[in-house]
Structure formats: C-alpha cells, structure tokens
Amino acid sequence: MSVRLGSELVLDRVSMCVHGGEFIGLIGPNGAGKTTLLRAILGLQHVSSGHVRRGSAAYEYIPQRGDLYNGMVPMSVLDVVLLGSRGSRAVALDALRAVRLDDFAHRRFNELSGGQQQRVAIAKALAANAGVLILDEPTTGIDEQSQRDFYALLSELQGRGVTIIMVSHEVESVLKLVTRVICINRTLLYDGLPEHFESDKYLPGVYNAQHQKLHHHHAGGDHA
User: Fold this and answer.
1) How many domains does the structure of the chain reveal?
2) Of 209, 184, 182, nearest to 197 (Cα)?
3) In the predicted structure, residue 220 carries a pLDDT above the cut 50
4) Do 21 and 125 reside in the same domain of the chain?
5) Same domain, 200 and 157
6) Same domain for 174 and 214?
7) pLDDT-based confidence at 171, cuts 50/70/90?
8) By C-alpha distance, which of 26, 49, 53 is closest to 38?
9) Does 125 share its domain with 135?
10) Using an 8 Å Cβ cutoff, are 107 and 75 in contact?
11) Mean local confidence (pLDDT), 39-44
12) Are 147 and 170 members of one domain?
C-alpha cells in the first residue's frame, strides 16, 4: 500500500502480512511513516493505493504515555478499564489482575507512574478482548526498570496468543524481545527475524545517536 499526505508520499508500496501470535517490532528513523502505517492498519488513515485487510480479531491502539486518556485522568484505574469491559466489573478486575495492578483499582489514573499507566492501558485492551495490540512508542518517558517490566508483560501476553505490533526507538531492547522486525523509511527496508537484522545497514547514524541520547535522558524517568 501507499499513502500520500497532500503532495508528499509518506509510505511507498509497503507490503506486510501479520500472523496471529506474532510480536512485531516496527522500527525506523523519525519521519519514516511508522505512525502513518499504524493508522492505516487501524483504518484511521486513507490509503492512496493498495488496501488493508483486517481479520476478525479486535484491535486495540495504545499510544505514547502522554497521549493516554487526555481529559479522563481524574478517573479511577478501575473506571478506565471498565471502558474496555463495557461496564463489566468482573472482567475489568480480571484484566487488572492479568497486569498485576488489581491492588490499584481505586487509585486515580493520574496518580500512577508512567509504567503503571501503560499497564492500565493494556488491561483496558484485555478487558475489551483484544486479539491485536498496536503500541506506538509505549515506553517513552519510562525508566529502564519499568521498561523491562513492561516488556516482560508484553512477552507474557504474546505467549498467550495475543498479537503485538509495537513501534519503538529502543532498538536494542526490541531486537531481544520480538519475533519479527519490520524496518521502514517510507518504504520497506527489512522484514524478517531479529537476529538477522543489521542496525548499521538499515538505520542511519543520526538515528543511533538520537536513540542513545533519548535512552540516557529516560534513565531518570518514572518507576512502575
């Protein structure tokens, strides 16, 4: 598929097939079209040519931490997850137990750390019976230990059969975590196993420098 925004070709003949139970790491430099690709998969972005086929599984989108539930932060953790369970308290509490936050059910969402907020977002998706999780840089602004905990949760969910597509600038962590890497820079550069991905070949030096700077900056962030 291809996507044009005005006169700009943002995605050029990107073709991919996602299989159930995969954990895909979607990487590429800033401006590569990663978020546009996610929006196209979700049906939120018009495709200029080609098409997107989605299976019957429910899709849930989890944005960066700063974009979570804007305007809803006074809500309790349980109230946020109830949005996914359509009011079923039992389902919502089961989902919170799955992410090990059931003890936080009556805390206000905005009182939680960044890592905890992202786990609540996962719980909401699980409460909605999501078969596919799409995450856009979910560990932005989260400290290293919280990242490790969050990634461990994602691996656990993938082990249960949940399909995950995750955009991340944490390339080193992603390569150790995912079952498949897709690298784009407006067009498809690499689609295959993480152990065969060569960062120096597909990612420009400026990207690696930015990644190291961001990684250092995040070291003092929130704790899960």
Assistant:
1) 2
2) 182
3) no
4) no
5) yes
6) yes
7) confident
8) 26
9) no
10) no
11) 91
12) yes
Q: How far is the C-alpha of 135 from the C-alpha of 67, rounded, in Å?
A: 12
Give the integer Cα–Cα distance in Å for 157 and 163: 8
Confidence check: pLDDT of 104 > 80: yes
Sheet holding 132-136, edge to edge: 59-62, 132-136, 163-167, 23-27, 180-185, 187-192
Residue 122 has a CB neighbour count (10 Å cut-off) of 28
Instruction: Examine residue 63 and state whether it is found in any structural domain, yes or no.
Output: no
Q: In terms of domains, do 143 and 110 share one?
A: no
Angstrom CA distances, 16 to 6, 74, 85, 137, 172, stand at 24, 39, 31, 20, 23
Say if 3 falls within a structural domain.
Answer: no
What confidence score (pLDDT) does residue 162 get? 94
Judged by DSSP in three states, 159 sits in: helix
Please calculate the CA angle 194-197-200 and round it to the nearest 5 degrees.
140
Indicate whether this model's pTM tops 0.85. Answer: no
d(CA 19, CA 158): 12
Confidence at residue 205, expressed as pLDDT on a 0 to 100 scale: 52
Range(s) of the domain holding residue 102: 70-129
* Banded model confidence at residue 20, pLDDT cuts 50, 70, 90: very high
212 pLDDT more than 60:
no
Element (H, E) at 137: none
pLDDT in tens, 108-165: 988 888 888 889 999 999 999 999 999 998 888 788 888 888 899 999 999 999 999 9
Q: Which residues contact 80 (CB under 8 A, 6 or more apart)?
A: 69, 72, 109, 120, 124
